[in-house]
């Protein structure tokens, strides 16, 4: 077993913590890095970069949205002898109409992907769509607990991907041969509407969850009334708008290509029907 650790940035996030757990289950040394986790790491503090990279053989890279720090970080990684990188990116980057982007997040993410491809390292790019776990441990979890998903998403659908599938793909790319130079777009096996999401959550949690479609104006007004700044409320509305327009309804073959099996369904992700290491 190689004693050099794998660096996982964003190690407390939905994909990061799952990747850390899988690597440790495999007996692989891991350096779990984040601003508040086991190993201090802060994108905005380059003084934390060297300690994070020292002795590392491979890294899972969760970029800071809207920043262009991946390129200098990879330069440092190469100097430290890192040989392999897996970048967490996102679906829709090739579509300028995918989501309204007033903060330069799309342009920065494309720059990060270009930096990875130019790095000289063995690279893999992971492009997941919406995580199924958005409803159980993410931005909409509180709404699910309250019993109502109140969103301006109309009857739009998305092919939500299991965060454990995302982690499994990353671990394969970090530890196996055959993934260098691959860009994996990740989705679930079918698109589901928010009405179907609510029904699945009802069955999984034992509490009634219903979807209440709102207009964008109603949604923003509700968030502002709850104390959110208008700009943040508008940003959340923009996310829901991509659902309404079905921008993530298409299916991607990344899980099948990377793991040799189909992706798990939304219901399987929510019910937790998944082994720990595949």
From TrEMBL:
Residue ranges constituting the NAD(P)-binding domain according to the UniProt record: 10-176
Protein name, UniProt field: NAD(P)-dependent oxidoreductase
Superkingdom of origin organism: Bacteria
PANTHER family the record matches: PRESTALK A DIFFERENTIATION PROTEIN A, PTHR43162
One matching Pfam family: NAD_binding_10
